[in-house]
Amino acid sequence: MNLKEQKRLSIPYLRSVDVNTKTAQIMMIGSFVFSLLVCVTAFVVYREGILKQKDNPLVMDKNGEIRKTFDIYNDGYETVSKKALVLRGHELFFRLEPDERQIFSNIQQSFYLGDFRALYEFYQSQGYYNNIVQRNTIQYIKPDSILFAGGKGRFYGKEYIRGQGGQSVEKFLVTEFDVIERDRTDNNLYGFYLDKIKIIKNNLVSEESTKNAGLSSINALTEKEHE
């Protein structure tokens, strides 16, 4: 066999070996890249899970229930919003100055926050607001506590009525209401609304003087409303 025939026989074999070697290298590189992608993907998924768990861990609430911190935070935020709504609504409705415009402006604003209309209609029918203006009387409240149970709430506080000459009346004021969700608006930013508001206690605590006829008549109206 001459040299040309040997070359002719050896070339196909060498080419086949070379092709197989390259194929094996490509497969090895592809397997490595695929394994790397799998590892990276698994790490990213694991890391995201850890971060979410850190951001929102499970904790035990005051009732002994296992809950997410996010849910407990939301509950706290809602309670703060509800208390702010109750306080603002009561301040608007029960804060009365001897000025008709101020009285009805405040009452109108309170209607956006709660259903104070029934109380307003009663006071109006009894001439309560006219007495406030004519007797130059000031009425305001100071909150003690605001409590919620389910969809209901109660406001506990003191109501003060101050007349001319410094005479004053101090009364316990307790109201009860339902708390319902509402869309936020420009006039109600709290996301809640007070429904079915009623006064369940409005008792006299102290009275510095009963000689002021105007103050006594106003006090009598509030007592009548409670009855």
Describe the protein's topology.
Layout: H1 3-55, E1 58-60, E2 66-68, H2 69-94, H3 100-113, H4 117-125, H5 128-134, E3 138-149, E4 152-162, E5 168-181, E6 192-201, E7 204-207, H6 213-226
Antiparallel strand pairs: 1-2, 3-4, 4-5, 5-6, 5-7
Descriptive overview:
By secondary structure, this protein is α+β, with helices and mostly antiparallel strands. Helices cover 54% and strands 25% of the residues. It is built from 6 helices and 7 strands, in the order αββααααβββββα. Strands 3, 4, 5, 6 and 7 form a 5-stranded antiparallel β-sheet that branches. A two-stranded antiparallel sheet has the order 1-2. Strand 1 and strand 2 form a beta hairpin. Helix 2 runs antiparallel to helix 3. The model is unreliable at 58-73 and 209-214 (pLDDT under 50).
Measured as a percent range, the helix fraction is 40-55%
Q: How many individual β-strands?
A: 7
Order of helices and strands: HEEHHHHEEEEEH
Distance, first to last CA? 130 Å
Q: Report the biggest beta sheet as strand number plus sense, adding barrel if it closes.
A: 5 strands, antiparallel
- List the uncertain runs: 58-73, 209-214
